[in-house]
Amino acid sequence: MNNNRITSLINKMTIHEKISQLIQLATPFYEGAANGGQITGPMLELGIQKEDVINSGSVLGASGAKEVRSIQEVHLKDNRLGIPLLMMADIVHGYKTIFPVPLAIGCSWDLEAAEKSAEIAAKEASVSGVHVTFAPMVDLVRDPRWGRVMESTGEDPFLNSEFARALVRGFQGNDLSNETDRVAACVKHFAAYGAAEGGRDYNTVDMSERQLRESYLPAYKAALDEGCEMVMTAFNTVDGIPATGNKRLMRDLLREEMGFNGVLISDWGAVKEQIPHGVARDEKEAAEKAIQAGVDIEMMTSCYAHHLQSLIEEGKVEEKTIDEAVYRILELKEKLGLFENPYRGADEEREKEIVLSETHRKAAYELAVKSSVLLKNDGILPLNKEKKIALIGPFAKSGDILGPWSWLGSKDEAVTLFEGISKKVSSENLLVEKGCDVETGSEELLNQAITTAKEADVIVLALGEDSEMSGEAGCRADIRLPEIQLELISKIKGLGKPVAVVLFNGRPLDLTGIEGQVDAILEAWYPGTEGGNAVADIIFGERNPSGKLTMSFPYTVGQVPVYYNNYNTGRPKDAPDAQVRYVSQYLDIPNAPLYPFGHGLSYTNYKYSELKLSSNTMTSDQSLNVSVNVINSGDVAGEEIVQLYVRDMAGEVVRPLKELKAFEKVTLAPGETKTIEFTLTEEQLRYHHADLAFTSDAGEFTVFVGGSSRDVLSAAFELTK
């Protein structure tokens, strides 16, 4: 501790005032809030006293310049030392202007656009009084049954790391003290929450430390290296111990090894949840384990409030441990400039100008276009505006396209697909029917849809999951579309007309019952506020789709987890001498996913040729230049995402069949050829060995370059040492 101002303030604080700084409470606890003092149900059961609220350190879920200023004003009058509150909220993919969900943003492979989306979210949140956002979530994900895959950017540690950096830059900027249109970022969930068993929220995680370091830690480290101010603990266990009470994970790994000196906050209720986990007998022991592990802020349980003081008096917790936590919290408040300006960016007049502004909506539109992935197209797209189109499905006119964690986003302010298409075609050429609801239907709705579809030249089916079927606590064992939607597809297919499907969803789906029945599939994800405009422009060819998957789509859910950067086996299915039966395979489906990592079609075609290496060998001191020619062999301009992968052919421990190491987005006019160049270094070939040493192996490597993890050219080189 070297900040004299903060140290002096801590010295003036009583034990109760210090402990209260470690408490985070929801908005209803605070006088000055619109619903202040209306504590009911589980919140009432917390047993939080008025003095705890007066001295608390942070508020969860407060927003709107007027309300935030009111809460802060009342608090500063009541708080003995005039310590301002931190206002925190889940601003995940937009505040009021909602961008595509993070998994979709990942599919844009556009780091600049991702950073801009976070910058805009921060600007809207800050002017509305928010100081800290609980984002980005950088958990690596391989199981689409888990509802929170929508909050990640995918299955690759390198790409996740790049997006982690971009999003932290967008939220925080370069100077939190003076850039009042920025907010502090909180990377989550530390650690390995994306590996929850069975794809079930809050569930157990069990993996080797080498796997943890290899696949799951890089994106957290990238966010921290970018200066992320806060970390949130995960709900899950790590090596048998809940993350929130895991001293080795938080003190030794996060703080000592990774060098994190910022604020560590629990997830909602996670401190107390150590009791049902079975590692704490009661709230007192839960408080002791969490504070000893280094958790600075307890979110929405009262273990700290009720028991930290007695733990200090009993000598089980040192007061200096509390002081360290308080110091970190006050230091963040100082970085945000709250001691000088406790209202920071909250401004009612600017709020009216900035929030959901036309400029912000345009940025949301651009990212929605770039995030959409054309999975399949048998020549039906783009649509001809002169044809009669039947738009059918539960998402035809639905505003439920914002997705989970859109918080203050309004479905009424979202542009629906119907509204987007209506701007492109005459009313005579656009027929629309619901066909069914998301999970239920009726013969009447279905029959009306069939009758209408018969009048059309081409049919667009708007299908998917409602937002409650994804996100936190939105886990699904069966990740197909609901049966009623599959029935609708089957009935429509029976008409013998061209059919395109637009999917609105938050996870890779099992496309059984869809993929073989339709002519085109556009994965729009939850595209956000401007979703209808973006999708309409794509399906009519005014914008050329360029998104590529960052999470594999399974052939069926029985493959899960299925991901591109998997290991080989001793009996791989595709080995030259493979036996018919006794190899690693399914008897009834392929091993490979239906649509792999990096897959995404365009309205043009790209051809790769002349993959060249500057040398057949690489050394620690000499990098390798990799070049490839890419030609747009089609008739329209497009943007291609060129991907470079590497395989270590014989490592000390088994290595993935492919690992993404670099990528570049390139715009090509029809007939244009560009030479794309990458530089590959020895450092990029390093990995964690059996003893966890992070080094490379001398020997043979293969480099792959192409338009997806499946469609690549390859060349070999050798690393010498």
Give a quick rundown of the structure.
By secondary structure, the chain is of the alpha/beta class. It is 29% helix and 18% strand. The chain is built from 20 helices and 26 strands.
Summarize the helices and strands and which ones pair or pack.
Blueprint lengths: L3 H9 L2 H7 L1 E4 L14 H5 L4 H6 L2 E3 L4 H14 L7 E4 L12 H7 L2 H17 L4 E2 L23 H16 L11 E7 L18 H17 L4 E4 L3 E2 L2 E2 L4 H11 L5 E3 L8 H4 L5 H11 L4 E2 L3 H11 L5 H17 L12 H7 L3 H14 L1 E5 L11 E4 L24 H6 L7 E4 L9 H11 L4 E7 L18 H11 L5 E6 L15 E4 L7 H9 L66 E8 L3 E2 L5 E9 L5 E11 L10 E10 L4 E8 L6 E2 L5 E2 L3 E8 L5 E8 L2
Parallel strand pairs: 1-2, 1-10, 2-3, 3-4, 4-5, 5-6, 6-9, 12-13, 12-14, 14-15, 15-16, 18-26
Antiparallel strand pairs: 7-8, 11-16, 17-19, 19-22, 20-21, 20-25, 23-24, 25-26
Report on the architecture of this protein.
It is a single chain. By secondary structure, this protein is of the alpha/beta class. The longest helix is centred in the N-terminal third of the chain and has 17 residues, at 111-127. The chain is globular and about 75 Å long.
Radius of gyration: 27 Å
Cross-sheet strand order for the largest sheet: 9-6-5-4-3-2-1-10
Give the uncertain stretches in residue-range form: none
Share of helical residues: 25-40%
Q: CA-to-CA gap between the ends?
A: 44 Å
Strand content: 15-25%
The count of strands amounts to: 26
Count the helices. How many?
Answer: 20
Class from helix and strand fractions: alpha/beta
Give the overall form: globular
Largest sheet: 8 strands, parallel
Mean pLDDT: 96
